[in-house]
């Protein structure tokens, strides 16, 4: 692997990737994975991995276990060779995996993704797969179902073996031969059935001697009575082997015919296994897909180095290449400077390999032609290189290779030599790399480089934050702020003699002290501003929450008002309908009276009463106080009083006392309005009796408490609310002894009718229910008979 890639520990990431593969070819592809330098190619690889993550999360990952690379065996079969049972079983298992993965893809075929090309390259061959698995049981056993001829041969072998064993059983159980036998058993030697005979009795059992025991005390004799049966078995065994060989040749020839198809399918299978291993790695790292560009612009949010344990890693934000091309990172030792460099370099390489990176969404990375690195101590005794020499050797190589498409990461630039010369050399190196238009991130302790970043356009300071109070780094990277090494503070906190620390401060040049003081003040101001911003963000979030709550309340108020208006419209419509019906009836009576040309006093009185009743129904709003009905408030109104708005018969609560014009601010439901005090009636407050604190019994409504209703109007309600209203009405009806209810739901879309009828079918109090007939409201009402 490229030395720069190994320095950034890409090899460890690839080893983790390889461990997540199943196929050997996919594992090798993971270990040999290299960054790509074409932006479109990188974006395609990232999309493939991202799509694999999405498919795995939605449908579960496909299984690739059991498949092997059978290319060599298939090419030999294609050339006319005979494959072994193990090789044929490997072909069958591979085809089985190909078929199951293709079937898995059929479940998610509706989801368009960048992997469809690989899935379409999978060609299943269930015929050949089943032919092999039907014929071959294991590497050592061929099934009787492999061919009719093999089945017939084995049947004959079993028959001949049975005859031979019957004959031998008679011999070993015969009183004539039992005394000559070493053991009363039947065994085999060279595929022929024999019996063990004592060596000294070999002439007493006529037959052919096939073997002798190691001790020489036993000889294995094939009695003459089973010679012919054994000969038949031997011949059949030969035929069996010939038939098995023919079957294997036939299966091999069939496999060879599909060699190209199986090999291509396996290559696609291995590629899919490789891509889904990338998805598994991304899931284990909680990674996301970065946005890519080829302009050298990097903006990583909440980056977590994948090789640091999850419970210890601290997310960092890294920016480079947009407003500045060089980042100079300063700060104390063990503060996270080197980890920041490695994170930037490793994320770049991972993205260029098509791997998702563990950072926040919408992070941005760039494709670089070269990633050049000088990190770590590479001094070598064999090459006579000191730390400084080793660093300079690497940096010289970086200077030779760097160009506009390079990312240069240099740790402790100029370290290991005289500080003055090292700082000057580091500044010159940065200037040279900038002339080559490379993107640079470097760590340092030199104040000269901090000053260089402050006065040079396109160069930005960065620091790794350090809490001097606890002597612990926070590992946060702060862009635009130069850092302090904090050597004096750390030494003092660790117990260094204060006089030594003070003397060291005196030895530092005044310019350095002034610069460090400025940096310290900037850091204090930054922390103060950061707290203020955090407080402002918290207040903004609280204000947004309150605003959202107020908007929700306003929306609910509007919805309640709209419902009230709709109910009023429906009530008005019922009044109009009822009045029209009554008017029609009166007209009919008048027509009848006109025809009869005579009307009795009783008829005139009844007609006048009907007209008055119709007028009362048609105008439900009560008239205001008449001169003969004067009402005087028993006392002045005060806030909280419950009053009746007389002309609309509506209860309300007093919100403010009467003004000089006699107008009182009241709230009726959700509506606030001003009403003339003359139109208000003070209602007596009903004081609720104190509940006995020792009693936990709840009050159960009796029949006297329930107001019976025989007609329920649910028009304008939602299905859920309508069912609740009907349920309550049925309960009231049962308590009141009402046996019949009329539910008015209207015709409309039929939703209310359907919901209510479904509820009535399951209610235990309902005896029967039906739609209204002509004159009852037809399909607009439901008549309910209660038990």
Description:
There is one protein chain. It is built from 21 helices and 25 strands. The chain has six domains: 3-125 and 258-285, MutS, DNA mismatch repair protein, Chain A, domain 3, CATH 1.10.1420; 146-252, MutS, DNA mismatch repair protein, Chain A, domain 3; 291-494, P-loop containing nucleotide triphosphate hydrolases (Rossmann fold); 530-618; 621-686, SH3 type barrels (Roll), CATH 2.30.30; 711-786, Ribosomal Protein S8, Chain: A, domain 1, CATH 3.30.1370. The protein is an alpha/beta fold.
Secondary structure blueprint with pairings:
Blueprint: H1 3-7, H2 10-19, H3 24-31, H4 39-59, H5 71-78, H6 85-107, H7 116-120, H8 126-135, E1 136-138, E2 141-142, H9 148-172, E3 187-189, E4 192-198, E5 207-212, E6 218-223, H10 227-257, H11 259-285, E7 291-293, E8 298-303, E9 316-320, E10 326-330, H12 337-352, E11 364-366, E12 370-374, H13 387-401, E13 406-410, H14 419-435, E14 439-443, H15 447-455, E15 459-467, E16 472-479, H16 487-493, H17 498-507, H18 510-596, H19 601-618, E17 642-645, E18 650-656, E19 663-668, E20 671-676, E21 680-682, E22 711-713, H20 719-736, E23 740-744, H21 751-762, E24 766-771, E25 781-786
Parallel strand pairs: 7-11, 10-14, 10-15, 12-13, 13-14, 22-23
Antiparallel strand pairs: 1-2, 3-4, 4-6, 5-6, 8-9, 15-16, 17-18, 17-21, 18-19, 19-20, 23-25, 24-25
Helix pairs in contact: 2-3, 3-11, 4-11, 5-10, 5-11, 6-8, 6-11, 8-10, 9-10, 14-15, 16-17, 18-19, 20-21
> Strand order across the biggest sheet?
12-13-14-10-15-16
* Percent helix range: 40-55%
Q: Kindly estimate the percentage of residues that lie in beta strands according to DSSP.
A: 15-25%
CATH top level class name of the largest domain? Alpha Beta
Q: Kindly state the mean pLDDT as a whole number?
A: 82
Q: What is the third-level CATH name, the topology of the largest domain?
A: Rossmann fold
The quaternary state of the protein chains shown equals single chain
Tally of structural domains: 6
**Number of H/I helices:** 21
Give the low-pLDDT segments: 379-384, 621-628, 686-705
> End-to-end span in angstroms?
87 Å
Largest sheet properties: 6 strands, mixed
The CATH superfamily of the largest domain turns out to be P-loop containing nucleotide triphosphate hydrolases
**Mass-distribution shape:** flat
In the CATH hierarchy, what is the architecture of the largest domain at level 2?
A: 3-Layer(aba) Sandwich
Output the radius of gyration: 48 Å
Number of E-state strands? 25
Structural class: alpha/beta
């Amino acid at each position: 692997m490229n030395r720069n890639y190994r320095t950034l520990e890409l090899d460890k990431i690839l080893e983790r990737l390889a461990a997540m593969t199943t196929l050997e070819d996919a594992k090798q592809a993971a270990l040999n994975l290299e960054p790509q330098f074409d932006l479109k190619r990188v974006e395609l690889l990232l999309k493939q991995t991202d799509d694999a993550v999405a498919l795995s999360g939605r449908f579960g990952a496909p299984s690739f276990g059991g498949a092997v690379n059978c290319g060599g065996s298939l090419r030999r079969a294609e050339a006319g060779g005979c494959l072994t049972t193990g090789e044929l079983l490997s072909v069958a298992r591979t085809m089985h995996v190909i078929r199951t993965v293709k079937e898995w893809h059929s479940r998610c075929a509706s989801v368009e993704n960048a992997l469809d090309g690989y899935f379409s390259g999978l060609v299943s061959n269930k015929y050949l797969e089943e032919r092999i698995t039907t014929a071959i049981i294991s590497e050592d056993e061929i099934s009787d179902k492999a061919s009719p001829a093999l089945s017939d041969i084995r049947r004959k072998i079993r028959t001949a073996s049975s005859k031979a064993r019957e004959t031998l059983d008679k011999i070993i159980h015969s009183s004539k031969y039992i005394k000559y036998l070493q053991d009363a058993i039947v065994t085999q030697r060279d595929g022929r059935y024999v019996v063990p005979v004592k060596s000294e009795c070999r002439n007493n059992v006529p037959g052919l001697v096939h073997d002798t025991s190691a001790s020489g005390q036993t000889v294995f004799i094939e009695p003459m009575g089973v010679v012919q049966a054994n000969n038949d078995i031997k011949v059949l065994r030969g035929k069996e082997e010939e038939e098995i060989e023919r079957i294997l040749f036939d299966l091999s020839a069939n496999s060879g015919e599909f060699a190209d198809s199986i090999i291509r399918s396996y290559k696609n299978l291995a590629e899919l296994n490789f891509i889904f291993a990338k998805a598994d790695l991304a899931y284990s790292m909680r990674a996301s897909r970065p946005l890519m560009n080829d302009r050298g612009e990097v903006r990583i949010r909440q980056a977590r180095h994948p090789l640091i344990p999850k419970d210890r890693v601290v997310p960092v934000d890294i920016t480079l290449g947009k407003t500045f091309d060089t980042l100079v990172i300063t700060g104390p030792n063990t503060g996270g400077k080197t980890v920041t460099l490695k994170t930037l370099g490793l994320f770049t390489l991972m993205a260029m390999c098509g791997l998702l990176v563990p950072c926040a969404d919408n992070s941005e990375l760039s494709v670089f032609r070269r990633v050049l690195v000088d990190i770590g101590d590479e001094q070598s005794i064999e090459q006579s290189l000191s730390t400084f020499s080793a660093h300079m050797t690497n940096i010289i190589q970086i200077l030779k290779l760097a160009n506009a498409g390079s990312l240069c990461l240099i740790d402790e630039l100029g370290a290991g030599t005289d500080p003055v010369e090292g700082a000057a050399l580091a500044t010159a190196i940065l200037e040279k790399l900038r002339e080559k238009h490379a993107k640079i991130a470097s760590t340092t302790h030199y104040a000269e480089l901090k000053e260089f970043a402050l006065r040079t356009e396109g160069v930005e300071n960065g620091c790794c934050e350090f809490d001097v109070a606890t002597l612990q780094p926070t590992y946060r990277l702060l862009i635009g702020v130069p850092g302090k090494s904090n050597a004096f503070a750390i030494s003092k906190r660790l117990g260094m003699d204060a006089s030594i620390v003070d003397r060291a401060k005196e030895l530092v040049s005044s310019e350095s002290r002034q610069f460090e003081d400025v940096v310290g003040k900037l850091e204090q101001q930054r922390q103060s501003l950061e707290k203020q911003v955090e407080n402002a963000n918290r207040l903004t979030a609280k204000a947004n929450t309150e605003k959202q709550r107020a908007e929700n309340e306003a929306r609910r108020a509007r919805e309640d008002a709209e419902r009230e208006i709709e109910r009023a419209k429906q009530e008005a419509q019922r009044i109009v309908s009822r009045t029209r019906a009554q008017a029609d009836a009166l007209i009919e009576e008048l027509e009848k009276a006109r025809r009869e040309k005579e009307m009795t006093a009783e008829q005139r009185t009844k007609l006048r009463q009907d007209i008055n009743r119709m007028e009362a129904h048609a105008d439900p709003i009560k008239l205001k106080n008449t001169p003969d009905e004067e009402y005087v408030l028993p006392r002045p109104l005060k806030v909280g009083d419950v009053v009746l708005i007389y002309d609309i018969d509506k209860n309300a609560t007093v919100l403010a006392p009467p003004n000089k014009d006699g107008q009182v601010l009241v709230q009726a439901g959700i509506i606030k309005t001003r009403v003339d005090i003359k139109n208000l009636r003070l209602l007596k407050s009903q004081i609720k009796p104190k509940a006995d604190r020792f009693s936990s019994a709840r009050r159960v409504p009796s029949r006297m408490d329930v107001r019976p209703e025989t007609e329920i109007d649910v028009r304008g309600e939602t299905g859920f609310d309508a069912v609740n209203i009907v349920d309550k009405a049925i309960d009231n009806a049962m308590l009141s002894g009402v046996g019949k209810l009329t539910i008015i739901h209207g015709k409309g879309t039929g939703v209310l009718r359907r919901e209510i009828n479904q509820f009535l079918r399951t209610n235990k109090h309902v005896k029967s229910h039906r739609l209204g007939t002509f004159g009852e409201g037809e399909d607009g009402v439901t008549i309910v008979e209660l038990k």
